[in-house]
Structure formats: structure tokens, C-alpha cells
Amino acid sequence: MSDISVGAFYNPHLGAELARAEGIDHLAMADPPANGDPWFPQIRERYTLLLHDYLGQLSEPLDERSVQRARSLAQLYRSPWVAEHFQCLHTEDGVYSLNYVFPPLYTEEFLERFIRNARALKARLDQPLVMENIPGFFDVKASQLPEPVWLRRFFEATDVGFLLDLPHVWLEAHYHDRAPERWLAEFPLEHVVELHVAGIEQDADLGGPWIAPAEPSPAMLDFMAHAVSRCPAAKAVTFDAFSPSLTGDVLLRSVERIRRAL
Amino acid sequence: MSDRALQDAVIRALADAPYRASPEWRGRGLADPEQVERYARFLARHFYYERIVGFFKYSRALARVTARWPEAVLKSPSFDALLPTLVLGSRDSARAVAGLVTHYVSSSQPPIPYLSDLLRYEAAMMVAEAGARIWREEGEGSREKDYPATVEGTVLLTLEYDLPAVLPELLKPWTEPPTAPRRATTLLVARSPHGRVAVARGNQAVAAVVELADGKRTLDQLATRAGLDRAAVEETLLGLVDLGAVRFSTGS
């Protein structure tokens, strides 16, 4: 029996089911609880909650308002760690935003920016900081370093934890015609604290697979078991699905299947 | 050009379809155009899915009666036709997408008297939310408090039905669609600089301030033009500033 915590995301429309569910150790919080969410008090009492909100993009320093928001949410959730993403999704002038995780260019300049700003955020938090990898659907020619090298240098310079999103690794391997296990081996797995697992479905716009609020496939669960065996410091695996279209059945069955696969 | 500026160009290409098709972007040769186009279309559908599900949640709750789920428009040929024009986050694009939803949901002609008001309200919220936003606070900003100006995107809606009375009921379990009192109602829809949309009931003072606050009139001039006493205008202004409907400028 694995002692790794197995959980999911808190989906407010499934609040009633999650409040009485069995077999879930933790819930990640993508948004603050809505005013008047009748289930949140029970959820907060019952589960370990992980702060996994949008705090800000670390290509720029977080402002005081965002830092205070992060501190206040971490305190509300009693979160054992605080998560952010390796993302740069809005322009500096605030005019354009993708409203979806999008990776930075893997360059020396961005590495220096993320190291400086992650160190500053980490110093203001009472909990450890973990950072999640983000998939690229296409390559940008201005990138200078392979993503795993860029990540390794970041983690070595900051002593921040790694939130390893496995479907992201799997998708990058797929779109670059690589074996997922070989691609995974290049990442700095010794820094992994938490892993994300999700379902994948065909997307008509992309003309290929992408993350979806669906159950993880048997192949994805095998990939997860393989990854966990190579992450000596891993403490948690989270079913990464947060969508109004997610059903309680899919969430509960996914958590159960993850637990069995570990 | 810095790497940060290059990243901004990539973000803009993904968000702004006309820019993506321009020689300025294409000439950079930064990424495979077909892959960028595919990903941009994926992002556009995701972007508007989140907004439609959020802002049209009451119409969504009525879908059991209307058989029209607002987000279904994202898979329609009409939405595909909009894709080459969309700029994620722009008010014009928000208006165009909200228009598709409104047309689609209202075309079922369901027996819900307040549906037209409801769709106007939801579309106004979606349009108000659009526009550039402040992601990071830089300094403390201006301390001048003399020239109130209505913030772009702020809307006053005059409705035939008292929607605030029925909205909470729509999200609770029901067998028959909840009814709304037929009572003329004015609602103010506004957005904070950080993108938070707020709604409040309007009154004569609110309507006057929103109409007259142009960033050039002082508070006293505003009160005189509106025919209201200064204290009432000041109190109204404070509420409107909190909502994001009015800001203070240094005048011109």
C-alpha cells in the first residue's frame, strides 16, 4: 500500500458528492470558494486542501496584492504547499491574455526572471512553493534550452518543489514523436513533490489529443506508476480535472483507479 | 528585441486573429503557422467556453425548458465564421460571441417572459468583463479626487422585469421555471480594473452620475447638472468607485 496522498480538484458543482465521498485524501483548490458555497465548510474540515490557484505569472514579480492573496488563501486552506505554474500567458501591458496556461520561452532571460521572482515569492510564503510544468503544442524558434534542462536549472537555483504534470509530459512526447518514458527521464524528477494525472481526448481544433475532464486511460495510469517509482520525494498524486462538465462518477472512479495503480 | 517582447508577440498572435494573419507576424517566422492557427482556435473555444458558462449560467439553468445550452454555439458554423476576426478579451469580440448566444437561446421561443431581459443582462456582463486589465499594481496611482469619469464598458440596463428577484431561484432546484415580478428595473453593470464584474441596482442618482461623469466635470459641477445635492452625489460616487463603474482622473 502506497503512503502517497491521492486526491482530486474541488469542483464546486460536485460539492455535495465530495462532502460525503470516501477514498479521497486531498482536494486541490483552483478557485477560492464562492460566497455562499454551502459545502465548503465541510470540505475544509474534512480534507487536506492544496492551494492551486492563479497567483500570478512569475515572468514578472508578484505585486503586494497578489502576495497577500496567496498568503491568505494558503492560510484559509491550511495548505501544505503552494502551487504555481511555469506560465507566461498575458502580455506585459495587460492587453492580451490567453486565459489558459502557456509556457514561457525557454531562454536564459526567462530563466533568470523566473528564478528571481520565485525566490521572492517563496520568501513571502509560510509554506513551500511548488511549480508545475506546462505543455507546449508548438515550438517557438526563439527558445534556447530544452525544457527539462531549463527546469533543472530553475529547481537547482531556487530549491522550489516540482509539481510534475504527467499528461503535459505525455502530450509533448506525443507531439514530438518521442517515447513518453524516455522524455520523462530527462526531467528533474528528484525535485517532484506532487504529480498530476488526467484524462486525454481527441480535440478537433488540435487534430490530436489534449487534456480533458475524463478518466485517465490505462496507459496513462501505467505511465503514472512508472513516474512515481522515479520520484523519491513525491507526496501526492492529484486527478487534474476542473470543469463544469466533470461528473462525480468520473472524478470518484478516477481517484479510485489512481489509488489502485500506485 | 528582448525575450519578453518576443513572448508578447507570440501571446498576441495566439489571441489576435487579424494579427496572426498579418505579414508582421508571419514575417517573423517564429513558429509553424498551421500549428499556431490550430492552437489559437483551441484557445478561442476555451476562452469563450469559460465566459459563456460563467456569464450565461442562468440561461444555462433554463436549458431544461429552452433545450438551448448556451455553450453549444461554440460548435456552430457561426462561431467558426467568427474565428478569423476574434481578438480574445476585446469588447467587440465579446459582443459578437454574446450575440451568437443570445440569438441561439432566444430562437427556441420558450414560455419564459423575462428571457429577453435575462439574455440582455448576461450579454452585458460578458461585454463589460472584456478589455485590458491591470494584472499587477504599479505604485499607488493618482490621489486626485476631483474629476470623476465613467469607466469604459459600464452599462446601465433598463429592464422590464425585476431580474435580481429571480436570479438566485434559477440556480436552485425547480420543477417549473421560477417567475420574475414584472416591474421596471435599472441595473448597473461595471468592471473593476482587475476584471471583476459587479452588478448593482440603479436609481436616479446612479443614472445621472454614470451619464454625466466625463472626467472633466468636478463633483460640484456634476451635482449641479444632475440637480442633486453634493452629499448625495458624493455617496453615490463612492459606491460606483467600489463597483469599478467610476474612476477619478486628474482632469484635462
Structure description:
The complex is a heterodimer of chains A (262) and B (252). Chain A is an alpha/beta fold and 262 residues long. Chain A has nine helices and ten strands. Chain A has helices at residues 15-20, 40-46, 64-77, 108-124, 147-158, 166-175, 180-184, 218-228, 248-261, and strands at residues 5-9, 26-29, 48-51, 82-85, 129-132, 161-165, 192-197, 199-203, 208-212, 236-239. In chain A, the strands form two sheets. In chain A, strands 3-2-1-10-7-6-5-4 form an eight-stranded parallel beta sheet. Chain A has a two-stranded antiparallel sheet with strand order 8-9. In chain A, helix 4 runs parallel beside helix 5 (147-158). The radius of gyration of chain A is 18 Å and the shape is globular. The N and C termini of chain A lie close together (8 Å). The model of chain A has no long low-confidence stretch (mean pLDDT 96). Chain B has 252 residues and is mainly α. In chain B, the strands form two sheets. Chain B has a three-stranded antiparallel beta sheet with strand order 2-3-4, with helices on both faces. A two-stranded antiparallel sheet of chain B has the order 1-5. In chain B, a hairpin with a 5-residue loop joins strand 3 and strand 4 (197-201). The longest helix of chain B has 23 residues, at 33-55. Chain B is flat and about 60 Å long. Chain B starts with a helix and ends with a strand.
Secondary-structure topology with pairs:
The complex is a heterodimer of chains A (262) and B (252).
Chain A: E1 5-9, H1 15-20, E2 26-29, H2 40-46, E3 48-51, H3 64-77, E4 82-85, H4 108-124, E5 129-132, H5 147-158, E6 161-165, H6 166-175, H7 180-184, E7 192-197, E8 199-203, E9 208-212, H8 218-228, E10 236-239, H9 248-261
Parallel strand pairs in A: 1-2, 1-10, 2-3, 4-5, 5-6, 6-7, 7-10
Antiparallel strand pairs in A: 8-9
Helix pairs in contact in A: 4-5
Chain B: H1 3-15, H2 17-20, H3 23-26, H4 33-55, H5 57-61, H6 63-66, H7 77-82, H8 91-106, H9 115-129, E1 147-150, E2 155-161, H10 163-170, E3 182-191, E4 197-201, H11 204-212, H12 219-226, H13 230-243, E5 246-249
Antiparallel strand pairs in B: 1-5, 2-3, 3-4
Helix pairs in contact in B: 8-9, 11-12, 12-13
